[in-house]
Amino acid sequence: MKDFWNNRYADDGFAYGTLPNRFLQSQQQRLKPDLKVLLPGDGEGRNGVWLAGLGLEVTSIDYSEVGIAKINRLAAEHQLSINTRCADLTTMDWPVDEFDLLVAIFIHFPSNVRNTMHDRFIAALKPEGQLILEAYDKRQLDYGTGGPPIEDMLYTKNQLDEDFKDHNILHNEHLITDIHEGKYHDGKSSVLRFVVEKVPGPS
Question: How far is CA 172 from CA 94, 149, 159, 161, 198, in A?
């Protein structure tokens, strides 16, 4: 899998463009300066760099060394500072109660690890921290305009409700919309847009 992403990011250009994700942009009321934000699977850094430009303290993680190098390059071009880490999200040691926000844009896990990874997303947040997520819905297979072509790695609205049922779900929407993010996310798409707030556990 690391080789797949290294190859995808090997071109001088940016596979998914350099502009931030549109749903993330729409959540700007949640993006206050100096908040600590974690971006697992940040790819080549388009979302992390945009958030750093808003004054957030950004940590971007990706499995691809090539992607990490491009995150650092893009940040330097914008004269911004970002913390970067190259790691496999499924095996790394995850932070706990550390971040105000976690942004997960088009990160897809197979069903045998999806719930565990979503638990780690929540665990990384401080109490009342928020997760902003966009992912492809299973109906994306009918469009073929982006995302993994494997049904088991695509999500449903009900799965997200179930995975985060112990927390405060603020937004969970399925929609068909046009996505234009570089050459690999391009065209009419079936997506899920989701925001959840971490409910503090018992003290």
Answer: 25, 23, 11, 8, 15
Helices (H), the chain: 2-8, 22-26, 46-53, 65-77, 111-124, 157-163
SS3 for 25?
helix
Domain annotation covers residue 181: yes
Q: How many structural domains compose the chain? A: 1
Residue 96: band (very low, low, confident or very high) from pLDDT cuts 50, 70, 90: very high
Q: In what order do the strands lie in the sheet containing 125-136?
A: 83-86, 57-62, 36-40, 99-105, 125-136, 185-197, 168-181
For the record, the structure tokens of 159 come out as 């799965």
In a domain, 111, yes or no: yes
Average pLDDT over residues 95-104: 98
CA pair distance 9, 105, nearest whole angstrom: 17
Of 11-15, 77-81, 124-128, where does mean pLDDT reach its minimum?
Answer: 11-15
Range(s) of the domain holding residue 176: 2-197
